[in-house]
Every structure is written in C-alpha cells, then in structure tokens.
Amino acid sequence: MPRLEWPLHIVRRVVIGVIVLAVLAVAIPLTVNWFQERRARCGDGVVKMGDYHECVGVTDGSYTFADHLAPVEKKIKAENELVEKHGDKYVSVAYMTSFTLTEDDSNSEESVRHELEGAYLAQYRHNRGDLSSSPKIKLLVANMGSSAAHWEHTVDELIDRKTSDDKLVAVTGLGPSDTQNLDALRRLSDHGLALVASTMTATNIEGIKGLVRVSPTNVDEAYAASAYLKKERVRRAVVVQDDARENYYAKTLGDAFTKVFQDIEGHKLVADRMTYDSSVRGAWENELRYMPGQLCDQKPEAVFFAGRGKHLTRFLDAIANRPCQDREFMVITGDDTTNLTADDLAHAAESKVRVLYTGLAHPDMWQEDPDSVSRPSARYFQPGGLMAKWFPDDQHQDGQAIMAHDAVLTAAQGIQMAALGDVTGESVARMFHQMNSRQQVPGASGFISFQNNGNPRNKAIPILHLNAKGRSELVEVSARRGEPARKQ
Questions:
Q1: Keyword annotations for this protein (predicted)?
Q2: Which of 53, 52, 30, 25 is nearest to 40 (CA)?
Q3: Where would I find the beta strands (DSSP E) of 416-487?
Q4: pLDDT tens digits, residue range 335-383?
Q5: Helix (H/G/I), strand (E/B), else coil: 315
C-alpha cells in the first residue's frame, strides 16, 4: 500500500493550527474568568456577590458600602491614612456586620450607620484623643451582606488580613444573634482573632475562645424587666414570642423572662406563651393581628414581647385596634427596639399603649447613675458633644453608636495592655480577662469588665420609655439580676 505523504507546507499549517487551538482552549476561559472577576470586583478587598449583587468584603474606607455611610467611611479612611503616614507601630481592628440591608434584616440603615460612627469615635480617642495610646489602630469595615449571607467570603478576607500589612488582631461588631453570625464568629475564633460583640445578647452565645461582649445578656435584660414590673406592682403578664428557629435572641429572651417573672409571691403568667413565626413570610403579621382579642380575654397587666423591633411595630398596630378599647395595655420588650428608625419609633408611639424596653445604652445613663457609667465617655454622645458635631444629622439615643464605641474601645484597651509583648489576636484576647478593678473599660454604656464566660460583669441596663413623639426616655438604670447598677 503506498504511503501517504503530506507536503511540508501543509504539515506546518496543521501543526500551527493545533497549537493555536490549544492556546485558545486555555486563553478563552482565562479571559472570560478575568472579565467576570473584573465585573464582580467593587474595590480592593470587596466583590459583588449573590442575588442582590451586594458588594461584600473588607475595606479601609476606600470603598463605600452604601451612600448613607459615606461621611463616616470618609473619616475612617482619613484616620487610617494618618496612622500609616506617621509611621508609628499599628495593628488593625475590624468592625463587622451587615452594612447592605434588605427587608430581611432586623437592623436598619440608621442603626448600622450609628454603629460605624461609634466605632470611629473609639478609633479616634485611642489614636489621638483623650485615651491616646500605642500601638495605633487602623479600623477596617467588614460587610457580610444582607442577613450575613456572605459571611464566609468576608471572614476569609479578614483571616487573610492577619498576615498582611494590616496586621489584624481583633474583630468587633459581629451583628445580631443569629445562626450565620454565630458561624462567622466561631470561624474567626478558630483562627485566633480577638472578638468583641457589640449588640449580641442571646444567652447561649458564650464560652467561645477569644470572645467577649459589651452588651448584657438576655437573661440580664429579663431580670431587669421583671424587677421593674414588680416594682410597678405588676402581677399578671403574658409572653408573646417569635418562634423562628434561627432567632436565638427571641427564644432566649422569652425563656429568661418566663423563668424569672414567676415566683411564690404571686407574680404569674396568665396564659401559655403566645407565638408567631417570623420565618414564614406573609403569615407572621396575621398571627400577630389575632392576638389582641385573646389578650382582651386574659387581661394581663403587662405583655412581654420577645421579638425583633420591626415585629414590635406590627404588634402595636394590632394592639391599637384591640376590641377592648377601654382597657389600657403595657408592653415591655428587649433591646432590639433600638434597631427601629426614628419613623418606626414615632409610628409605634402612635399605638396609645405604654411601651417600655430594656435598652443597651442611652446618653443620659450617667446622669441617672453616675457611678455606673464613665462620664468622659458619655459626654461624647450628649448634645453639643463631638458625635453631634461630627454627625449633626444623626441622633444617638438608640444606643447603637455607644455599644459599637464600647466594643472598639474594649479591643483598643486589650491592644494597649498586650503591647508589652507581641500584639496578636491571642494576646489581646487574654487581656480581656484582666479587665477588672482598675483596668475596667470606661464605657459610655457602663464600666466594663468580664466574667470567665465572656459576658460583662454586672452591666448597667437602662429601662426606657417610648414617648408619644417616638423618643426614648430614660426611666431608670438597672443591672444584672435586677439589682441597682453600681461600679465594680
């Protein structure tokens, strides 16, 4: 059989064609991936993810996660640049929560903006204010996206910052008490970062290595609420609770109040716990709407509402339309009320129901109980104080700015105390448990020291009244177990 021979020029063309196809097979996917990555990139350390196309990740203030955050992020960016420019030794602290929000979030834009404003104040005070110390702090802003849906990406970004020029040692904020945020802080703990939760109150979040929180637990809030009601001679109450499985805040709050209110002196719950499930869209509002009729029959002197602030407004709407209009109602609830916007609060106040809640902080606390709160810290949040000058369009009665400030201030004090050696996440976390007696954190929400489980010791708790104008008025300052607050 004759052998087939190809002309040399044809062989060359075939070989070149094969090589070109091979190169294209590699290059085209790489090019597509490059363009996809470019489209997904929002800024340094920040990428676009999820159905809502949220920009999530970590920034030093160079990228603005939402327009309403621009003024405070601009200040954070400027302070970070100043730290780098001066050449002093520095480490980084991140403030992490959900900064891009949807209707699924319990926090409001006002709430998270106030948190970031308070975090910046703490950075300023540590770097070049009245608490100036070393090493200096860069403040990083970490966004997990709505409902912390992209926490894994953001946490991985933070872990990478441990060994980068940022030298990250602590993460603060950490968001509400829910499953995603709990998973996030556990992963950060596993990687040796110091953690300070600003507003997490769920009682079952404790004993995690490196974690402390500056807010009281739900058990503490329940004791404070119960003590106040008993002082007001309330003997008959009912608990209304969100039964959503992942809402640790509501479950631990409802359980705690149920346990502490009932006693042998005749204080009792006059009905089984009334529940709704906020995880079932379109149904929970109807569940709340049907409760006032039952409450009219049960005749409690107070209703303890264990649910998120945004659910409270719907519940108060239902109470306002109760069939027993001649009967007065008192509703007392927990700290998530502080996440409501000014408009939400004003709307809630229209219900003509007396509404009280256990807050996390209030600017007037130091006037009510000067021994339990640092006056120099509290003055920053007073009318005419530095926060009002920096952010004149914002009010800070909600306490969110104060709690964020105290969380970052706690991390800063831990960094200062660890500075005699190598400042790492582990060394800073060890210092948290040395913060007692003369080493308490001078918080605007109260003097802060920690128990071995990471919870604050005898933390001051304000009892607040929602007035007819939707403003939070301080009624009294209580503390853990409902005792009078006092400096340790």
A1: Membrane, Transmembrane, Transmembrane helix
A2: 53
A3: 441-443, 446-448, 461-466, 472-478
A4: 888 777 777 777 777 777 888 999 999 888 888 888 888 999 999 999 8
A5: helix
